[in-house]
């Protein structure tokens, strides 16, 4: 049997890890900064293009290292400027990344897992079940790919991406180490230099990991609330049975006070017709959140096939918003963007246009993932 060296993927290494890497191969630590700038600021994956690195070191790096992002399966641009990438990760699954331009702001919505184990009843990603955790390189790789596609070189001068939200596919706190490493790179000046206020992690409420997060990083936090009481939340967000509302809100408050500066928690609330969109729910929500500095983001349900849910009418949405407004909350309604390319937030059904067949037919990523499972099984048995 021949043994081949597995190359170290430098894309997902934080500055500290990169310095350790150069230490380990007997090189000076300052090489870390040089190489990181090439990778993240200039989108370079070819060591030969790193012209301030000596030829000898470049040759050495080519043998032992690589800069490898996830494979781009498709890139679509909506008429409203929204962009969506489908990328294939090492497990063979596909995940989605969405870019939403809004005035001077450009928000990139990044995935953390292929599928999700938490099975929220209205979420298309949850319906796929869990497939795999993304590596740190696959998480930051989505930012790297998006940034390159804007041709903004260097990334920190001409910023197309001003904000990143971990609101794509998956529960970021269940892929903790890789997501934290990638978020460090988003904020690092040698990475993407995005302010900590503009990097947001969204969670459905994995309480112990919210507490853990505070020990590692100080990004902004969004909580997927979706219901104002435990009985309803147990149905919509099953992890609530393990970590009920009181416990959850306390952990969010601990996190917010760990930040050492005044910042408010974002509350996400997907509005589902006749389920959680009544005035009485808004009233209950006012009571629940009265002592928590927060802003509320209402997300009208984005439908997908066989979901069993509907989006409330515009009147019902406005009524709900008004109720919260009148109680003094800052409430926004998330507008649906990129509908023509299936990029609406929370609607990451994971559909991939099957370009090879040149038809309008879409294949659900779920099917692709099932295929790759089959392929994997086949490979294992061969
Ligand atoms: N797993 C994390 C982050 C990803 S989901 C979380 O749950 O917070 C990003 C947001 O979209 C969450 O608030 C999620 O509940 C919401 N969402 C999921 N499916 C949706 C749908 N079909 N319509 C509207 N919002 C949805
Ligand atoms: Fe997972 Fe978030 Fe979807 Fe719930 S809403 S199933 S936590 S991705």
UniProtKB/TrEMBL annotation:
<feature type="binding site">
    <location>
        <position position="202"/>
    </location>
    <ligand>
        <name>S-adenosyl-L-methionine</name>
    </ligand>
</feature>
<dbReference type="InterPro" id="IPR058240">
    <property type="entry name" value="rSAM_sf"/>
</dbReference>
<keyword id="KW-0808">Transferase</keyword>
<keyword id="KW-0698">rRNA processing</keyword>
<protein>
    <recommendedName>
        <fullName>Dual-specificity RNA methyltransferase RlmN</fullName>
        <ecNumber>2.1.1.192</ecNumber>
    </recommendedName>
</protein>
<keyword id="KW-0963">Cytoplasm</keyword>
<dbReference type="Pfam" id="PF21016">
    <property type="entry name" value="RlmN_N"/>
</dbReference>
<keyword id="KW-0004">4Fe-4S</keyword>
<feature type="active site" description="S-methylcysteine intermediate">
    <location>
        <position position="345"/>
    </location>
</feature>
<feature type="binding site">
    <location>
        <position position="123"/>
    </location>
    <ligand>
        <name>[4Fe-4S] cluster</name>
    </ligand>
</feature>
<keyword id="KW-0949">S-adenosyl-L-methionine</keyword>
<dbReference type="InterPro" id="IPR013785">
    <property type="entry name" value="Aldolase_TIM"/>
</dbReference>
<dbReference type="Pfam" id="PF04055">
    <property type="entry name" value="Radical_SAM"/>
</dbReference>
<dbReference type="InterPro" id="IPR004383">
    <property type="entry name" value="rRNA_lsu_MTrfase_RlmN/Cfr"/>
</dbReference>
<feature type="active site" description="Proton acceptor">
    <location>
        <position position="96"/>
    </location>
</feature>
<feature type="binding site">
    <location>
        <position position="116"/>
    </location>
    <ligand>
        <name>[4Fe-4S] cluster</name>
    </ligand>
</feature>
<feature type="binding site">
    <location>
        <position position="302"/>
    </location>
    <ligand>
        <name>S-adenosyl-L-methionine</name>
    </ligand>
</feature>
<comment type="similarity">
    <text>Belongs to the radical SAM superfamily. RlmN family.</text>
</comment>
<dbReference type="InterPro" id="IPR040072">
    <property type="entry name" value="Methyltransferase_A"/>
</dbReference>
<feature type="binding site">
    <location>
        <begin position="224"/>
        <end position="226"/>
    </location>
    <ligand>
        <name>S-adenosyl-L-methionine</name>
    </ligand>
</feature>
<comment type="function">
    <text>Specifically methylates position 2 of adenine 2503 in 23S rRNA and position 2 of adenine 37 in tRNAs. m2A2503 modification seems to play a crucial role in the proofreading step occurring at the peptidyl transferase center and thus would serve to optimize ribosomal fidelity.</text>
</comment>
<feature type="binding site">
    <location>
        <position position="120"/>
    </location>
    <ligand>
        <name>[4Fe-4S] cluster</name>
    </ligand>
</feature>
<dbReference type="InterPro" id="IPR048641">
    <property type="entry name" value="RlmN_N"/>
</dbReference>
<keyword id="KW-0411">Iron-sulfur</keyword>
<keyword id="KW-0819">tRNA processing</keyword>
<dbReference type="GO" id="GO:0008168">
    <property type="term" value="F:methyltransferase activity"/>
</dbReference>
<feature type="domain" description="Radical SAM core">
    <location>
        <begin position="102"/>
        <end position="342"/>
    </location>
</feature>
<feature type="binding site">
    <location>
        <begin position="170"/>
        <end position="171"/>
    </location>
    <ligand>
        <name>S-adenosyl-L-methionine</name>
    </ligand>
</feature>
<dbReference type="GO" id="GO:0032259">
    <property type="term" value="P:methylation"/>
</dbReference>
<keyword id="KW-1015">Disulfide bond</keyword>
<dbReference type="InterPro" id="IPR027492">
    <property type="entry name" value="RNA_MTrfase_RlmN"/>
</dbReference>
<keyword id="KW-0408">Iron</keyword>
<keyword id="KW-0489">Methyltransferase</keyword>
<keyword id="KW-0479">Metal-binding</keyword>
<dbReference type="InterPro" id="IPR007197">
    <property type="entry name" value="rSAM"/>
</dbReference>
């Amino acid at each position: 049997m021949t043994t081949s060296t597995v190359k170290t993927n430098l894309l997902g290494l934080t500055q500290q890890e990169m310095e350790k890497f150069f230490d380990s191969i007997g090189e000076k630590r300052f090489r870390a900064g040089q190489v990181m700038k090439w990778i993240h600021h200039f989108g370079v994956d070819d060591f030969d293009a790193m012209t301030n690195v000596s030829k000898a070191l470049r040759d050495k790096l080519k043998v032992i290292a690589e800069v490898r992002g996830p494979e781009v399966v498709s890139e679509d641009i909506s008429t409203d400027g929204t962009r969506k990438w489908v990328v294939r990760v090492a497990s063979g699954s596909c995940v989605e990344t969405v870019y939403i331009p809004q005035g001077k702001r450009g928000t990139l919505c990044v995935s953390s897992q292929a599928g999700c184990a938490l099975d929220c009843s209205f979420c298309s990603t949850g319906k796929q079940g869990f497939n795999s955790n993304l590596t740190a390189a696959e998480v930051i790789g989505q930012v790297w790919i998006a940034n390159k596609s804007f041709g903004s070189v260097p990334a920190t001068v001409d910023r197309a991406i001003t904000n990143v939200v971990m609101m794509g596919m998956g529960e970021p706190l269940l892929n903790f180490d890789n997501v934290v490493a990638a978020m460090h790179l988003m904020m690092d000046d040698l990475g993407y230099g995005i302010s900590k206020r503009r990097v947001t992690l969204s969670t459905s409420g994995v309480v112990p990991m919210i507490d853990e997060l505070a020990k590692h990083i100080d990004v902004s936090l969004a909580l997927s609330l979706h219901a104002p009481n435990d009985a309803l939340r147990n149905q919509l967000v099953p992890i609530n049975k393990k970590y009920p509302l009181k416990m959850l809100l306390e952990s969010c408050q601990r996190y917010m006070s760990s930040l050492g500066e005044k910042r408010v928690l974002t509350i996400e609330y997907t509005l589902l017709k006749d389920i959680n969109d009544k005035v009485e729910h808004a009233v209950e929500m006012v009571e629940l959140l009265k002592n928590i500095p927060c802003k509320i983001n209402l997300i009208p349900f984005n439908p997908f096939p066989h979901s069993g849910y509907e989006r409330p009418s515009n009147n019902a949405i406005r009524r709900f918003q008004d109720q919260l407004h009148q109680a003094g909350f800052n409430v926004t309604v998330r507008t649906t963007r990129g509908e023509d390319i299936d990029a609406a937030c929370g609607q990451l059904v994971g559909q991939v246009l099957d370009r090879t067949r040149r038809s309008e037919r879409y294949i659900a990523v779920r099917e692709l993932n099932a295929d790759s499972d089959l392929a994997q099984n086949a490979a294992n048995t061969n």
